[in-house]
Structures are given as structure tokens and as C-alpha cells.
Design brief:
The structure is a homotetramer of 286-residue chains. With 286 residues, the first copy, chain A, is α/β, with parallel strands linked by helices. Chain A folds into two domains: 81 residues, Alpha-Beta Plaits, CATH 3.30.70; 194 residues, Formyl transferase, N-terminal domain (Rossmann fold, 3-Layer(aba) Sandwich). Chain A is built from eight helices and 13 strands. In chain A, the strands form three sheets. In chain A, strands 7-6-5-8-9-10-11 form a seven-stranded mixed beta sheet, sandwiched between helices. In chain A, strands 2-3-1-4 form a four-stranded antiparallel beta sheet, with helices on one face. Chain A has a two-stranded antiparallel sheet with strand order 12-13. In chain A, helix 7 crosses helix 8. The radius of gyration of chain A is 21 Å and the shape is globular. The interface between A and D is medium-sized, with 35 and 35 residues.
């Protein structure tokens, strides 16, 4: 039998006794702490914690754990918290356009069992990737978006996301801007990959801008989508060195490899429940 | 008044209840936890922790803290532990030969107040750096070492180290091998910088070997000195890319910058009490 | 019509007048130089060059270019040289075992047109990847190798490689050691990915060794296969930082992403004819 | 006797025959090419070249070389060019404020002979670094700048720069903005280090902005100063990973090490005559 654990993510105003209160609660339910990471942002006076404990000898039912925690600990510290169980498999949907590299990379990781998730749904504004989705046995919906039909297509997308019981969405180089309404349905639930080291070069054609500016480094940024374009909480960034020898095409080529890896790492953290967000910044317990 | 804190480093066999025991002990002495990092090495079944707490409202005298912790917590868990106080300034000695880059870099950091330490003593087998030591007002002892006088010179070095009340030693490209006796006097107290990404290219002339092997990456490694040459616990490593264009001299030049930074980071961790060692591996709470 | 160019790779003993001789030869055939990279290894007294020129107004037939170059330039300088044309599509074979990550990554790049190559042949000692090969329409041969049948299976492999007219072979985490005979058939024609920053941790289970040694950096190395195990000319290396938090499994996970990228870059250089080898070291004109 | 070489930097509109013309010119003067790097920016249709040749058997006087080159080669290709000789030691001036890290690092490299330059002059708007300048035997001028006296102090600075025969100026964290007039006196002759990965976070307090934005990477950028703030041609950039654990102070600390190295590399390229600038972008022949 696989080891089953609970994962608790917490943040609250910083004050004395929080660690003790949480660890006492876990101990009182016969949980053995496997990982405990805490972080205090002194500038903002805020406390963050990720704690994972073994449920093997738990003296309390999973479904009562949250309620008990709220009552005995969270309420007293004004905590925001999430509780997850290691045996849950998050359900991820992919939104794609025509660029295949992140899409292929995600499907390869999924197929080879790198991630403990389900990927039941792919939505695209193009048909290009349909055949690839098919051979992985994933439902693919072609919903072309234009100026006129954005609202109804988004309604259809939301319907599908609900129907497929989706936990979080990955924009694998999906070249469309989502509406505020859509975004607000999935707070910290939409992950985008942007092809620059944000906040440099937001918006379109960042490699062209990077070339023009003559930078010696290009990058990629995965972030949660918020209603402000390319300004959501950053999950992961990485960079590669370039030189005067690199054309825009070379940058695009080198950037593809960055984008794949940076997006995959963000998905990993999402799946592992490593991420807390506060004030548009992420705390990532790695 | 500056905030004063206690730093406790602990490792012991992993079992339930350790975090709770430690945090309860701190709470019972009116300490507020500032940082708590823990790590479990499941393969080896060992628990590691660094916890730092505010002493502002401490209900117990500094000098009794260790004894109380031993009695009420450590004994029961078979803990190895160290207790430090943030207002202590560790005393560092430098051993140097003729290569100046790490030496200059360390003195610049010291002089500009980057590190909360004292550097009262420099020992060298050459006279080259004497003038630099003088202008920083640091005592400099020229103890040339050769095959015949190693033993007596080491005795003299040890005498000086004791006389100057040295906490830890940094070999800033000191090109001599220390005796087993000497090394055993300073467990986890001698930091060396080796000019390769160990375990590749141990021993002398690693840049020449790197060139011959045609590697595309060179590196530097800071580690604790143990009696096995270049095989002690690694504290920090970093690398730089090289190409066929780089001659041995280019590698040496690029390597110097690596060595400076990698050694400085190790010293930083040593000063901040971030490092635990077990089974020849370091746990670094950053 | 696509621009067609000639790519000439040259090395020879260094002496005066080489660049002039080569550029004069190209000019005399109405070629316009697009790229010219040269490198002199002064330690070894050897000259290396990669030059690419536009054939649009070439006054000489492709098939005579090499002969003319040999006669008018190469002979006089004792040159070793290769001549390629940009419209040739090299033919690559894949040897795989059970680990899918490099294999998937290569096929995704191939399918999406990232590389100007043909991949007509996959050989494996296992059946695991057969289905994936099928869906990409690539012939897959299952040739299980053991102590007893190595020789005859290698004979069969060589037969297939010849039959499919293969230019170079990629070992995409192929876990078998090739015989000296096999290797000698493909000088600078077999690319391997090793899962460490060689020369550290050659041989099997490098991530386990890296964990035991407590390194702070892991790496991957792509290199040409020679008869000495993991000691061939290095094409590309990259690294990732790890910490005490990383288990062997974490290292394997992080290493996979390194391996994919480092192998892909080596293949890119191979396809682009960027690589010269001399004295077990590569010169890579990037 | 040390080997003496000529270094020629050239750029011009791209067309056929440039490499041949330059190499023929060198050969006709009995020069042996040591390094030849060329680059074509096809987007802009511009050709760049750095060529270095041995003067040991030169059949022409140094002082006539430029004139001859202009007449026989440059004029015909509409070339912009510079000619340098390896035995010239460029004269560098330092402008500093109060932050010591880049300043110390530069002086250490200078004192230990890492760079073939002269540093005869330091100018500062503060007195903090005077003692350090003194012990290195470098003239130090304290010219405090404020709103009212900027113009006259700049006049004094320019006078000193001329008097000391300065070739290029390094702003080693000099916190003042220079006037357009001042900048125009030293085109590609003023190197600044900015403490972010430009174009992200131009202007003041970039580490504070980086913290607020929650980036996972910080950087440093060395660039030529132009009249547009922080927008000059980028020479070198590097980055370091940060996490939620890093406070603004941690970023400043980690950034210092980046700034030192990135500035030192830019100075290295400047000294080695590796840099060409065109359209606000650098071509760096490394």
C-alpha cells in the first residue's frame, strides 16, 4: 500500500505560536510530520507554511480534518488554508494554439507517468493538434475564437472545464487573451508560459524585442494568469545566454527549450501543492 | 537595540514528535520562532533542523539555554546539536600562498562590513601578501613550509590559531596539504576552495586537466577539509561554460571569478550557522 | 527557391596563409561567404575552420567542388576536410532502451520540423517504445541483447544501419555498451547522452553516486562514443543546481530535463555540421 | 620579446569579397592572422569583423598601417574601422560613489595584474573611497555634485579626464546621471553597471522593484552609457536565481556578486578590443 499523506498550505498574519499550534494539532491526530517548510515575510508581516504528514496512523477521518483544523487552529490565527491529500490526482486541461513544443512536452511527461495527474481535456482555437490529442486518447475541442464570438466560445470553454471537472488549466502557448470573467473563475488555476524574463518584454513578440534591444540573455516565465496581462504571480523563470550571433530565429529556437522546462516546472509545483500566493507574489516550497 | 536571536542546529535519528518537542521547548522559554527549517533524509533515516528564535522576551539566560535543551529535549532524541547566538562574531583565520584573487576578495568583503566576523590572523608560506595584510591591519605570519619542517610549522600554526582564538580557517588558495593531526583539530572548521567541480579533477592542475579532457564546463567547489584530499563535505559549487576557444589561461581567468564567489558563499553559510554535516554530506539551510 | 550553401569543415597544421587560400578558392568560384569561423589551437599548433558560402552564383558543379578544393588548397596545407551541402538531410537512427524522455523529445522535435533530418530507423533491446515509433511511422526493430548474442545482434544492427543508409546514430539513453568493432564503423557518428557532468561519475548510476558524494550540482554530457567508455569527445554539457533536499529520485527527475536538452543540442550541432574533432576534443562552431 | 599584434575592428554594409580583401591586405604586409572573427547581420545587411595578426614580420610601419588600410580596403567598402596594437595599455578612469564592492574588485584585479591597463584617476562625489585610492597610489578627486553645481563639476571632470589622457571611463556604481554633453565626449567610452537584467527595472532601486514584482531571477547588466538612461548598448549580462526566501537585502547581497563579475567582464572586453557597436547593439568577439 502506498503511503498516503496530507498536505496543508497556510498563510496568515505573523505572530507567535503558529508553528507550535499547527504541529500540536497534527500530533494530536497521530500524524507524523514528513516535511515542514515555513516562511515569514517580515516586510509584510505574513506567515506561510506547507506541512505534509503521514496519515498511516491518523486518528481522524480525512473528511473531518479540514473542519477540525479550521475550528481548533485556523480560526484563532485568521488563517487562509488549503488541505490536499497525496492520493488525489489533479485534473488538468490544456489550451493550445499552433505551437507544438510545450504541448508535445507536456503530453510526453503525462504519457510516461512523470506526473500524477489526469489530462482529460484539450481545447484549441486551431485544428493542428487534434491528431496528436487523439493518439493520446484525450478529448479535443476545436473552438476557434475571433473578435465576434469570444464571449460565446468562452462560455463553451467554461462549460467544458466544468463538465470535465478540471482543477487547473495550462496555457501551453495559447495565443489568445482570456476575459476577466473567465480568469476570475480560476484564481491560481490558470498557468501561462510567457516567452521572456518578465517584467521585460511583456505582450507579443518578445524575442523580436529582445533582439532589437540587444540583450545577452533571453528567458521564459511561467505565471498565474490574472486580469492584468503578463503581470500575474511568477511561479518559475529561467534564462539562456545569447550573443550577437543569434538571430531572432535562433532566439525562438533556444527559447522553446526554456519554455518547455519552465512551464513543466510550474506544473510540477502546482501538482505537488507547493505554491502559495499573496500580494501577487508566490511562495514556493520546493 | 539590535534584535538578538538564538540559532539551534540539530540532527538526530528521525522519529515522530521532534518538531513538536523543539518548538514546545522554545515556546516554553518565551521565544518567538523566526526561521525553522527541517529536513529528513529518509534514505538514512536522519532528521536535521535549523531553528532561529527571537530572544527579546526570553525567560531563560543564554548560558543556561544549552543545558536546558540538552536535558529536556536533546537527550530524549539522541540529538547532536550546536547552539549559537546572533551577536557572536566568529573569528576567522586565512591561510594563503601567492594567488591573490580569493584573498583580496575576502578582505574587501571584510573591510566593507559584508560579514559579521573578525579576521585577526593571516598565515602564509610566502611573503607576497604581507603588505596587503598590513594595510588591513591584520597580523600576518610568514611560515614557509617544506618537506622537512612541515611538522614544526604546523605546530606553530596551531599555536597561533589557538592564541588568536580562531573559530574557523579558510584556505584561500593555500597550496599546501595539511596533516591529519592538524585537520582533526578543526572538524568542520577548515574551508577550502578547489578549482574544479569535484569530484571531477581532484588534486593539482585541474584547469589543465579540464582543457585536456575537452569539457564544456569548468567549476569551483568549496568544501570542508577532511583527511582525504578533496573529498570532504561539499558546501557550495558553481560552474561556467567554456568552449574550444578557451585556452588553459582563459579557464584560469574565468575560474578565478568562480572561485571567489563560491568560496565567499561558503564563508557566508559558515558565518550564518547554516551548515550541518552528516555522512560527509552537508545540509545547508539557506 | 531556398538558398543553397556549401559548408566546408577543415583542420590542418597551423601556418600562414590558410584563411587567404580558402577564401580565395571560394571567391574564384563565385561563392559569397555567409559564415566564416576559424580557431587556432596554439598549444597543439592546429588550425580549424568552418566556412559556409552561398552557391547561388557558383561557377562550379557541386560534385566537382571537393575534388577542386583538394587539388588547389587542401593538398598544399595537409588538410583534413569535409564538404556538405545545406540541402542534404542527414539520416539519423535511434537506439533506445526503456527510458522514454529523450526518445519522446527527439521524436517531438522531428515531427514538428525543428530539425532538417530524416529518422527512418529505431532499434531497441526492448519492445516498450514500439507503439510510439509506430505512430510516428518509423520502422522499429526489437533486437534484445544479452551476454550470449551481442555479436550477432550487433551484426544485425549494422546491417540495418547500412540498409537504411544511416549517417549518424543517437543513443537516446540506450543502456548497452557497444563493441569496439561497432564503434569503429561510425567515427564521430555515434552520439551518446551520459547523465553526469563527465568526467565526474562515469559508468552506471551516476545520480546515485552524485547523491552519495553530496554534490551541489548535477549535469549531463553528450559526447561521441569512442571505444573508451564515457571518455569520447564532449559535444555539450549542462548542469542544474541541487541541494540536500533532493533525493536520488529528485536528481533523476531534474536530470531528465538536462539530458533532453543537452542531447538535443548535440544533435543540432551534428545536423548543422558545426563539429570538428581533434585529439579527443571538439571544436564547435556555433 | 613579447609577441606584438595588430587588432582591426571593422564594420560596413555586407557585400561579397570583404573577407578576401582584408585577409589579402594583411598577407600583402606579411602579417600572419592569429584570430579572425566575422559576423553578418543579415537583417540589417551589415558585416562585422575583428581580425588580429602577428606583427613580427610586418613589412609596414605601425603608423602607416591605418592609412594604407583606409586607402586600399576600407574606402572601397565604406568601412568604419578602428586599429589597435596589443602593446598599448588603455587608460581607465573610475567614477565611484559610496558603494565599495565593484570598486574594490576592480582595484584588486588591477593591482594583481589581471588587466593590461593603467588606472591613473578616480573621481567621486564622496570622500569614502579616498583612503582606498591612496593605498593603491591612484589620484583621487572629490567632486561633490548637486543640482546647482552639476555643470561646473562636469567641466572639472572632463578637464581631469583630458589631463590624465583617459581612454575610457567606468562607472563603478556611480550614482549620478551624466549630462548629454559629457556622454557625447566619450562615445562607447563610458561603461556602466546597472543592477538589474535590463530592460527590466531600469532607473533606481531595481532590487526593491524585483522584490515587489516577485521575480525568481535577478540580474546585472553592463552597458555603454548613452543619453537615454539605462538604454545603451548591452555588453554583458548575468543572473542569479532567487526565491521567496530572499528579502530585498538578500537580493542586494547576491546582486553585488553579479555586479562585480558582469562589470569586470565588460571591462575585459573593452580592454581586449572585442566590442563593436551598431544600431545600439554590441557585437562581442570573444
Amino acid at each position: 500500500m502506498e503511503k498516503r499523506s496530507a498536505i496543508l498550505l497556510v498563510h496568515c498574519p505573523d505572530r507567535e505560536g503558529i508553528v507550535l499550534a499547527v504541529t500540536s494539532f497534527i500530533a494530536s491526530n497521530s500524524g507524523n510530520i514528513l516535511y515542514l517548510d515555513q516562511h515569514v515575510d517580515y516586510e509584510k508581516g505574513r506567515f506561510f507554511m506547507r506541512v505534509e504528514w503521514d496519515l498511516a496512523r491518523s486518528s481522524i477521518a480525512d473528511e473531518q480534518l479540514g473542519e477540525q483544523f479550521q475550528q481548533h487552529v485556523a480560526a484563532g490565527f485568521d488563517m487562509l488554508w488549503q488541505l490536499h491529500f497525496s492520493n488525489e490526482r489533479p485534473r488538468m486541461a490544456l489550451l493550445v494554439s499552433k505551437l507544438p513544443h510545450c504541448f508535445y512536452d507536456i503530453l510526453a511527461r503525462y504519457e510516461s507517468g512523470e506526473w500524477q495527474i489526469e489530462v482529460p481535456l484539450i481545447i484549441s482555437n486551431h485544428q493542428d493538434m487534434e491528431r496528436v490529442a487523439e493518439r493520446h486518447g484525450i478529448d479535443y475541442f476545436h473552438l476557434p475564437v475571433n473578435q465576434d464570438n469570444r464571449q460565446e466560445q468562452e462560455a463553451r470553454q467554461l462549460e467544458l472545464l466544468q463538465q470535465y471537472n478540471i482543477d487547473f488549466i495550462v496555457l501551453a502557448r495559447y495565443m489568445q487573451i482570456l476575459s476577466e470573467d473567465f480568469i476570475n473563475q480560476y484564481p491560481q488555476g490558470i498557468i501561462n508560459i510567457h516567452h521572456s524574463f518578465l517584467p521585460a518584454f511583456p505582450g507579443g513578440r518578445p524575442y523580436h524585442s529582445a533582439y532589437e534591444r540587444g540583450v545577452k540573455i533571453i528567458g521564459a516565465t511561467s505565471h498565474y494568469v490574472t486580469t492584468e496581462l503578463d503581470a500575474g504571480p511568477i511561479i518559475e523563470q529561467d534564462v539562456a545566454h545569447v550573443s550577437h550571433k543569434d538571430t531572432v530565429e535562433d532566439m525562438i529556437r533556444k527559447g522553446r527549450d526554456l519554455e518547455k522546462v519552465v512551464l513543466a516546472r510550474a506544473i510540477w509545483h502546482q501538482i505537488r501543492r507547493n505554491i502559495l500566493v499573496c500580494d501577487n507574489r508566490t511562495v514556493i516550497f520546493d
